[in-house]
Design a protein that fits this description.
alpha+beta, disordered N terminus, disordered C terminus
């Protein structure tokens, strides 16, 4: 993920300290700084405070008094040049840095878990093999889904075990809203908790093995074991990163109250022997306002790729006991097939007391498989997805 160069927002701060005798500070190229606009002098000049120092700055970008600014020092000779970032606080800057750190691990959760399930643990110590085997067994059970027979209760259970809600569970326990027994049960079935516990065990074994190798002053006998442990740690960490990136994206949507921006919930599953990931996007009822101050109904977008049908997208909107939905596929013959099965799709909802109406049509693959969670990265953070 590469942020575009913000060449139009260069801040040229002249080395004109208003109180040079009272302050001493060193600016270094590459440092990140945050500050505030104190006073507007003209259309292109302002007094800014950066790193506790007041400077007279010139900039082609319009600033406002009281505005927070965050930037990276590009050069200090012959003047301080800072590239302003599109963040209003150091927190925004840290979130963007975390996003870039996690982004290389970005992949469907099913793919990350499948790699973990296929991990070769033969070179690891027996106790680590047992720990990894237990984790793999749990993963395989979670992936063994029959989507055609998936019930609402099973779907809720899958989401609760996904790892996306671990911190929320811990918060409820800290607030006293969850008993010790309830917390233990929740952690025992939580995917992120299981990954984190196993990763901690593997990293502790790596440290112990390195210590033994150093004491023996012979690294070669331990090399194969360290490689196996390192590979296990890397695979575990990648799966953790997938969950944490999903959490970060959802947290930003929730905290900023982004209108029409959904939260993402990934459901990994096995299609035959191939691991896949269904994506459920949920825009809650308070995600935006309708016309004349009315509240918009919650919307759902469900995407998955089937071995026979190809990619399928379902957009649904709920209003009371009425559900209106549109199913999109990429092939005309698939659309004809699904139209014939619409009564089967609506029947379970009818039994629950919902009046369901669905349509089926074809659409471009880009729309049917669109990754809706990437929109805020492009719109708000100026990130570009570059792939070979």
């Amino acid at each position: 993920m590469i942020p575009p160069q913000l060449s139009s927002t260069l801040l040229h701060a002249a080395l004109a300290y208003l109180n040079p005798a009272e302050r001493e500070i060193v600016f270094r190229e590459g440092d990140m700084v945050e500050g505030r606009v104190l006073k507007i002098l003209s259309g292109s000049q302002a007094v800014v405070r950066l790193g506790g120092v007041d400077l007279v700055a010139t900039t082609p970008t319009k600033l406002a008094e009281g505005q927070n600014i965050v930037g990276k020092i590009e050069s200090v000779e012959p003047e301080i040049t800072i590239s302003l970032l599109r963040g209003e606080s150091a927190r925004d800057l840290k979130e963007t840095a975390l996003m870039r750190m996690l982004m290389p691990s970005r992949q469907p959760l099913g793919a990350a878990l499948a790699r973990l399930a296929a991990l070769d643990t033969s070179g690891t110590p027996a106790k680590i093999r047992d720990t990894l085997a237990l984790l793999v067994k749990t993963i395989q059970q979670a992936l063994a889904l029959d989507f055609e027979k998936l019930t609402p209760d099973q779907a809720r259970e899958l989401l609760s075990r996904s790892g996306l809600f671990l911190e929320s569970t811990l918060k409820q326990a800290a607030l006293g809203n969850l008993t010790r027994e309830g917390l233990a049960a929740a952690l025992a079935s939580d995917g992120k908790a299981a990954l984190g516990k196993t990763l901690t065990s593997v990293e502790a074994e790596i440290a112990a093995t390195l210590k033994r190798a150093e004491s023996a002053k012979q690294g070669e006998p331990f090399a194969a074991e360290l490689r196996a442990l390192g590979n296990a740690a890397k695979t575990l960490r990648e799966a953790m990163n997938v969950i944490e990136l999903n959490q970060l994206l959802n947290a930003q949507v929730k905290e900023r109250g982004a209108e029409n921006q959904p939260q993402l919930f990934q459901i990994p599953w096995l299609d035959g022997q191939e691991a896949k990931t269904a994506r459920l996007y949920v825009t809650p009822r308070d995600g935006g306002k309708g016309g004349k101050g009315t509240r918009k109904p919650p919307t759902l977008v469900f995407m998955l790729e089937m071995s026979a049908l190809g990619p399928v997208r379902l957009d649904a909107r709920m209003e009371g006991k009425t559900i209106e939905g549109a199913v999109y596929v990429t092939a005309a013959d698939t659309a004809d097939y699904l139209r014939g099965r619409l009564p089967e799709l609506a029947a379970p909802l009818d039994r629950l007391g919902y009046a369901a109406r669905f349509t089926v049509s074809t659409a471009q693959r880009g729309f049917v498989t669109e990754e809706l969670e990437m929109r805020p990265l492009v719109q708000a953070r100026g990130m570009v997805d570059v792939r070979a």
